[in-house]
């Protein structure tokens, strides 16, 4: 048997072995499910905006990580969720809801108001600790 013929058969055999092994390994990897925990753990707090009040009217959020506020306007009027010192000013139409994500940089107690109904007492506090 010539050297060229032997090399051709050997390389063909190697190609078939690699091909056969890749078929088996792709089947195995396709059936494996890898679950990784989320790296950004976000706390969710639901806040109801109703005619002339927030519920809860004192909201405590952690300094670390992100907090999502689910703002639900259950009132008949349009309201705002405004915390000036945190840079939050969101308008929520009657019967609608909005999600906002808050990632505060400093601890403290911040004034929460509805710009439209502050004179009717629609106010609260956001505490970051």
Describe the structure concisely.
The protein has 129 residues and is α/β, with parallel strands linked by helices. The chain contains one helix and nine strands, in the order αβββββββββ.
Supply the helix-strand structural class: alpha/beta
**CATH arch. level architecture of the largest domain:** Sandwich
When the domains are counted, the total is: 2
Count helical runs.
1
DSSP summary, beta strand count: 9
Please tell me the overall pLDDT.
84
Question: What ranges have pLDDT less than 50 throughout 5 or more consecutive residues?
Answer: 25-39
Largest sheet: 4 strands, mixed
Bin the strand percentage: 35-45%
Strand order of the largest sheet: 2-1-4-7
Can you put this structure into words, describing what you see?
Keywords: Copper, Metal-binding. One of its GO terms (molecular function) is metal ion binding. Residues 14-128 form the EfeO-type cupredoxin-like domain. InterPro entries: Cu-binding_ET (IPR050845), Cupredoxin (IPR008972), EfeO_Cupredoxin (IPR028096). This is EfeO-type cupredoxin-like domain-containing protein. This protein folds into two domains: 1-35; 42-128, Sandwich (Immunoglobulin-like), CATH 2.60.40.420. The protein is α/β, with parallel strands linked by helices and 129 residues long. A four-stranded mixed beta sheet has the order 2-1-4-7, with no helix packed on it. Strands 3-9-8 form a three-stranded mixed beta sheet, with no helix packed on it. Strands 5-6 form a two-stranded antiparallel ribbon. The protein has one helix and nine strands, in the order H-E-E-E-E-E-E-E-E-E. Helices cover 22% and strands 40% of the residues.
